[in-house]
Design brief:
Elements: E1 2-11, E2 17-27, E3 30-40, H1 42-56, H2 66-79, E4 89-95, H3 98-105, H4 107-124, E5 130-135, E6 138-143, H5 148-163, E7 167-169, E8 172-174, E9 178-184, H6 190-206, E10 212-215, E11 220-222
Parallel strand pairs: 9-10
Antiparallel strand pairs: 1-2, 2-3, 4-6, 4-9, 5-6, 7-8, 10-11
């Protein structure tokens, strides 16, 4: 008779994957050996990874979507040490007067503006940073291993890059500006960090848009926009 069956998955070279089943052949209490069954499941694993990537990606901009970005934010906050002198920061940003773009040029051009912004963000950020689209014209960025001053400098660099990279389309050049809210990590939970950055973003918009605003508890620091 046969004993209990066991199954494991094995990753091999060249991105191959195999599923291995084996059972013990018994004769009474004596083990006679094993029967091994090996199946190539590379195609299935590639398909599963593709589905996982699609579920985590915003289809328009190809940036991480809100769910994926929030998971990364929560991991970052959990790992972050408040005593670190380079804790990093969270940026919240959105396109100024985006509704006006849609109303003037139509939603297809509005989609091009969103994709254009995602491209600019990707080019400006460092390799260790993570950007995501939270929804609509709202984006977020995780800056890793930065001081207050460096975080503000990177946010200002991003604002300047967007301001100086108009979208060239059939209707001519479309000028784009963004407002940015910044909150430096200090051990607060992810939802608190998101709320702080969102408050700073609101202040940036109230202050005239096309500027960076840093959350600092008692006050906010505005860029020269």
């Amino acid at each position: 008779h046969v004993g209990l069956a066991h199954t494991i998955e094995v990753d091999a070279a060249c991105n191959q994957a195999f599923e291995v089943d084996w059972v013990t052949i018994m004769h009474g209490d004596e083990r006679l050996g094993h029967v091994w069954l090996v199946r190539d499941i590379t195609g299935r694993k590639l398909y599963e990874r593709k589905l996982a990537a699609l579920a985590a990606t915003d289809p328009l901009t190809t940036l991480p979507n809100r769910r994926s970005f929030m998971a990364e934010l929560e991991r970052t906050v959990a790992e972050q040490q408040s005593v670190d002198d380079r804790p990093g920061a969270l940026l919240m940003l959105d396109i100024d007067h985006f509704k006006r773009v849609n109303d003037t040029y139509g939603h297809p051009v509005g989609d091009r503006v969103l994709k254009h912004l995602a491209d600019v963000i990707t080019k400006v950020l460092r390799r260790e940073d993570v950007a995501g689209r939270l929804g609509g014209e709202e984006f977020a960025v995780l800056l890793r291993g930065t001081t207050n001053e460096t975080s503000f400098g990177l946010a200002e660099r991003l604002r300047w890059a967007v301001c100086n990279a108009p979208l060239d389309c059939d209707d001519g050049l479309i000028q784009i500006t963004i407002s940015i809210g910044l909150a430096v990590f200090d051990g607060a939970p992810a939802e608190s960090m998101l709320s702080r950055a969102d408050q700073a973003l609101y202040e940036a918009k109230e202050g005239g848009r096309n500027r960076v605003c840093m959350w600092s508890g008692g006050g906010r620091l505005l860029s020269a926009g």
